[in-house]
Design goal:
Blueprint: H1 2-9, E1 15-19, E2 25-30, E3 36-40, E4 45-50, E5 78-79, E6 101-107, E7 113-120, H2 123-128, E8 133-141, E9 145-154, E10 160-166, E11 169-171, E12 178-181, E13 187-190, E14 196-199, E15 204-205, E16 211-215, E17 221-226, E18 231-238, E19 242-247, H3 249-255, E20 267-281, E21 286-297
Antiparallel strand pairs: 1-2, 2-3, 3-4, 5-10, 6-7, 7-8, 8-9, 9-21, 10-20, 11-20, 12-15, 12-17, 13-14, 13-16, 16-19, 17-18, 18-21, 19-20
The structure holds 6-O-phosphono-beta-D-tagatofuranose.
6-O-phosphono-beta-D-tagatofuranose (TA6) binds next to strand 19 and strand 20.
Length: 298
């Protein structure tokens, strides 16, 4: 199957389909600058984004599962049609543990490298969520940016509500020298304090304890400062209302079997999507949302 995908979708020097961890199908995007990215068909899961120097910008746990029935720990899990435990489904919904279909690859004259994957309803999803849908993820790699565009289509004859998140795990040099900026004045729901709402007062959110907050209707531009590595990652969302900031810190890290006890020191999640409220999609309608990650020296 991987060989036939490579034959159909491979582009010499730009796109390769090959066996990844545990022989799971993986698409590797290579930009002429030296930047690269990897996307698994399992969950349409972006597992790597490297800058032109080959430095990894995302976090991937050394303890991650690589199994058909489990999410990959790290990179960019896709949460859909439910975020967290906001409904009756398994945590974060079924999209991230489903097998997606590779539908398109492209290397543009500008040098950008593109891969698109699709996921539609099945008997299995209908049993969990009785709606007909198509979800497309389009990943575009440029020299200093990675764009993830999501499209959800309602293929049925009745409206449905969904939540969606790009649950991005960023790598940082040292968590004590990392800061998330741009959320001052935004109302957040604190998942660690019975979901109470408060207003963020800090211009720079820094980390010295478990942090798990859904920021509601945030500005579209958020910054992650990685002081230890002297770099800034700009997070620019569009069509996505909310953001989550999460670091598990010590105790939760120890409770997660697919996460190293010390790995909280080198990661932070800044997630984008609609997690504080549902998107309602009418029959035949489609919803578009995207997030552009770009990296620059601090
Ligand atoms: O986005 C934050 C969060 O909801 C945390 O509460 C934590 O559960 C995290 O997602 C990871 O979820 P997972 O199911 O991947 O362990």
């Amino acid at each position: 199957m991987i060989d036939s995908l490579q034959t159909r979708f491979g582009i010499p020097g730009s796109v390769a389909v090959s066996p990844g961890k545990n022989n799971m199908p993986r698409v590797t995007l290579s930009h002429r600058s030296g930047a690269s990215a990897e996307v698994y068909l399992h969950g349409a899961h972006v597992t790597s984004w490297r800058n032109a120097k080959g430095e990894e910008l995302l976090f991937l746990s050394r303890e991650s599962h690589w199994a058909a029935d489990k999410p990959i720990r790290g990179g960019v899990p896709i949460c859909f049609p439910q975020f967290s435990n906001h409904g009756p489904m398994l945590l974060h919904g079924f999209a991230r543990i489903s097998e997606w279909t590779l539908t398109h690859t492209e290397c543009r004259d500008s040098g950008e490298v593109v891969v698109a994957l699709q996921f539609s309803d099945s008997n299995a999803t209908q049993a969990l969520w009785p709606h007909r849908f198509t979800f497309e993820l389009r990943v575009t790699l440029a020299e200093t940016s990675l764009t993830m565009a999501t499209l959800v289509k309602n293929n049925g004859d009745k409206p449905f509500d969904f939540e969606l998140a790009l649950h991005t795990y960023f790598g940082v040099g040292e968590i004590q020298r990392a800061a998330v900026c741009g959320l001052k004045g935004v109302t957040f729901s604190d998942s660690l304090r019975n979901n109470i709402n408060e207003v963020e007062t800090r211009q720079e959110i820094r980390f010295d304890q478990e942090t798990d907050r859904i920021y509601i209707k945030t500005p579209d531009s958020i910054l992650l400062r990685d002081e230890a590595r002297n770099r800034v990652i700009a997070i620019q969302k569009s069509g996505m209302a909310d953001a989550v900031v999460w670091n598990p810190w010590i105790a939760k890290s120890q409770r997660m079997p697919d996460f190293g006890d010390d790995e909280y020191l080198r990661m932070v999640c800044v997630e984008t999507g609609n997690m504080a409220g549902h998107v309602n999609l009418a029959p035949s309608a489609q919803w578009l949302g995207s997030t552009i990650l770009s990296v620059r020296p601090a």
